[in-house]
Every structure is written in structure tokens, then in C-alpha cells.
Amino acid sequence: MNGKKTFTIADVLERPVFRRAKLAAGAHGMNHRVGWVHVLEITNVSPFVSRHDLILTTGLWLTRKEEERAEYMEQLIRSEAAGLCVELGTSIHEIPPEILELAERHHFPVIVFEQPVRFVEITQDIHSLLINRHMELLKDLERFSRQLQQETLRSTDMNALLRVLQNYTARQVIYMSSIDTNRFVPSVQPDLADRIADLYANEVASSMTADREDHLLFHLNESTAVLFQPVVCFGQVFSAVGLVLHGETPTEEMSLLLDYTAKAAATLVLRTQFLEDRLLRNQNELIQDILNGQLPSEEQAQTRMGLRLLSKGQYLFWAGVVEVEHQDKDVSQVRKESINQDVLVLLRSLLKKETLHNLLMMKGSQCYILCAKEELTLRTGEQMKKVLAHTIQYIQNYAEGQLDKVRIQAGFGKMRYRMTGTDRSFKEAYQVIEVARSVPAMKDRLFYDSIGIYQLLKAVPGIPFLQEFVQDHLGGLIVHDREHHMQLLDTLDAYFQCHGSKRDTAGMLYIHRQTLYNRMDKINEIVEGSLADPDKRRCLEMALLSYRMLQAEN
Question: What residues does the Purine catabolism PurC-like domain cover (predicted)?
């Protein structure tokens, strides 16, 4: 493919069938690409003209009114046709000056045959040439694809893929990544590398989306541009492959080569992530030591995590658990492990993209996470929290859209300033997941500090104690509801939510005011105390929360 050009108007004029033709206007459009040839004599051409079409006509439309002639030309220009060929002597003898002026103004080539020609010979010649070139293109792409495949099977060297693309295009190739080092084949001067990196970070990265099919062209200056193709893994853009163009228009061949290279690069990125998983046994051992409370010192723990020791400032640590819940009971264990591994790789890639130091360990269907970041500002902790929330949301969306009958549950403990205290954070993360699963109102809670009073309820040692507490304060209401179906528990719960307003409580329950009064009288009679007593009210509220939580867990 190296050295091949797009077929243009200039190439058309070199064909033998055009030896008696001349260019009447639009010389600046000689580089227009020609994709096909059409014979059109109708005036409403827009529905029948595609981009890069070369139109053949006897000029019958030129015999119409001046406004209609201009509209015909404007339709061709708007449709981005390659050019127009007009045969003189059949319908017309000359092209009006205003039409040539319009074409010249838009750099739209107009080719004139001053003697009659056989349009069938032109279409046969150009179509045969285009079909042959297309077949050659497909063969070249097949060879290119095979070579990429061989390189991906041979090693995980990204530079090898980029060299294949560079050999085929004879152009500067770049690879920009948010999870790896940037690469240039061949190497470039540091100032150019910095300019391209700035362009990617400031303009390109934000424009890259996984569902975007077209390539992105960004200009470094008036004469230099970069054509980018995103590298997509798990529906996420982690990097991009690009070609540097000097005063050139991107061609279909360039786009196809970039597309093939980006897909091969995605394969390497995924394989590299899986290989990293195998090499991270020491991370598993470190997390296991944290869970067992076996870290001898903070300094040694940070060193094992790969953190540089700070002379000033401190690190923030956030520990959490991600559970992969397989709802299909018939799925095989092999399939479960494969899904768990995919989630782990995706999670690691997302955290790496966000430049968070992290330890990950998959144990069964639970992934343990420990993230660390140097506290640079007072907002670092809040920023970490947003990043973690966004990451979990992405994984949940991925599971919902791409994985069948798989649900993601996640929780994070309190942020801490020492690794040696993160064993408690993992326990808190478990509690967040348990509360989110058992209490409907808490189902979207992700962080320990957001579950409120349930921090205290989950800290109570042993379920029997809570059950006894519920029985002491709500036992009479539970028995009465079971026997008489008066919904006293729901009524009491609504009464507390409405801050003791009977009017609001009746409205919330959609019952008559007198019905509420009857229920409240029965509640006061059974609980043996006044609901106006603050201590009594707090006990009942805690008992209600405990009852709902225990009900859901059972």
C-alpha cells in the first residue's frame, strides 16, 4: 500500500478516453477523489449523487433557465461530487460563463468534451480501474491484517504493531495512551512529542468515545495534522493510534489501516492487562496481610505497595469490595471465573487510567480494592471519592449492558491516612454492601459515611441481640399486625417520617384521619408509653430500622 494514491480528477485526465478532453474550470480541485462514475441528465440530482461521484452529462440541463442551471451546479457541489464532465455538440455548444465562474469559485472541476464521446467507454474504463484498485486494496489489507496478527501472536510489543503501520504508510505513526507510555515510530524530536501529547490531552481525549465510528482529524498547525483512531477495550477508550499528515487529505486506505491497527492494539492492551494479573501475586499477599492485620509497619506496607516514602504530606487510602453477583444459577464455574477476571481487568484499567495507585485481589466473586493517592490539596479525598463512584458506575453499566444476568455490588469503608488501619475499612465496605442489599432506601449507597444510623446497627455484636431489642420494643405491634392486619408498624413508621404530623401521616398512608386516630390509639396502648417521650420515640425508631433490616436479610 506504500506509495499508492487515491484515484483523483488528475488521474482521470490521464486516461486514454480523456485524451481529447480539457479542464474548463476548477483547476484547484484536481485532487478530488473519484469513487464512481454516473451518467445523469435529470435536473434534480441530489438524491442520486454520492460523495466522490464523477458525473457525465450532455448538458441538457444547461438549456433551462439561468436559476435552474445554477441550482443544478449547487446540488453537485453540496453533494461533494468529484467533478462534472460535459459533452458539447449534442445538447449544447458551450457552457455559460456564470456556470464556469460558480465552479471555479468552489474549486469544482468541470471537464469538457468538445466532440461527442461514448459515455459507456468512459464508465467501463473508470469502473474497471476502480474495481481493480479496490481489489488490490483488499488484498493489501488482508496482507496487512495477517502481518498484524503475526505480531500480536509473537509478542506483546506495541512498537512492533506501530512499525508494521509505518512500513505500509511511510508516515509518522504515534500511539497515545492514558495507561501506558506514548510511542512514536520513528522517534521524533522532544518538542514535537510534547506538542502532540498536549494536543491529545487537551483536545483529542475528550472527543474520543467508544461508539464513535469516524476518525478524528486534529491540526497541529496550518500544514500538519494528525488522524486518530481510538483503541477500545471493554467499551472504554484507553489510547489512540495516529498518523501524522503533512498537507494531505486523509484517504480511505489510511482510515482502514488505522482501524485494523487499533483493533490489534486493543488485543495487546487486554493481553498485557491479563499478564499483569498473573504477575501481581505479591499484591494478593499484601491485601491478605491487611485483611489478617499482619502489617508490621506503615513504612514497610507503603513500600510493598510501591509507594514512594514522603518526607512531607501524606497518602489517603480508600479500601473497598466489589462483588460480582451471578444471578444465573445454571452458569458454569468456568464462565463465572471468566466474568470475574474480565471485571478485575476492567477495574484495574479504569483505576490506572485515573492514575490511582491500587492493589486488587480477586477471591471467589469478590474483588478487594485498596487505592492510594498523595494528598495534594484539601479536596484530594473528595476527588478520589468521585473517581471511585464513577468507576463503579461504569462497571455496573458494563455488567448491565454486556454481561447476562450479572449484577455488581460495591462498598467502600472510611478514608484513612494509614495502610495499617485499612483492615477496618474492608469490614466497613462489607457492611455497606449488606445494608445496600437489605435496605431498599440504601440500595444506591456506596460509601460507609453515607449509610448513617446503619453504621451503628451493623456494629451491634450479633443478630440475636438486635432481634431481642426489636422484640422488646415492637413485639406487641408485630403480633397485633399478624393477627389483625391493622398495619400498625407501617403507620408508626410513617408517623415518625412525618415528624409527628397526623395530617401528613394520613396523607402519606392514603387513609382517613379518623382511621389514623384509631390506629394511633392502639399503638399507644400496645407500646405502653407516650410517643411524645423523646427516649421512647428514639427506641422505637431504632427498633423499626433494625426490624426492616433484619426482615430484608432474612
Answer: 11-130
Reading the block at residue 219, the C-alpha cell is 491540526
Q: What is the pLDDT of residue 354?
A: 86
First to last CA, the chain: 67
Express each pLDDT in 228-257 by its tens digit. 988 887 777 878 899 999 877 787 788 888
pLDDT at 387: 94
The beta strand positions in 235-376, using DSSP E, are 236-246, 315-326, 357-363, 366-374
C-alpha cell read off for 59? 448538458
Q: Tell me what pLDDT residue 3 has.
A: 45
Give dist(CA 28, CA 21) in Å, integer: 17
What single-letter DSSP state applies at residue 381?
Answer: H
Neighbour count for residue 406 (Cβ, 10 Å): 22
| Residue 275 near residue 207, CB atoms below 8 Å | no
295 closest CA partner among 115, 418, 444: 418
- Our measurement of the distance from residue 113's CA atom to the centroid of its chain's CA atoms, rounded to an integer in Å, reads 53
DSSP-derived secondary structure for 164-229 = HHHHHH-S-EEEEESSS--EEES---HHHHHHHHHHIIIIIGGG--TT--S-EEEESSSSEEEEEE
pTM above 0.85, yes or no: no
User: Which residues of the chain carry a pLDDT beneath 50?
Assistant: 1-4
In the DSSP assignment, the letter for residue 19 is T
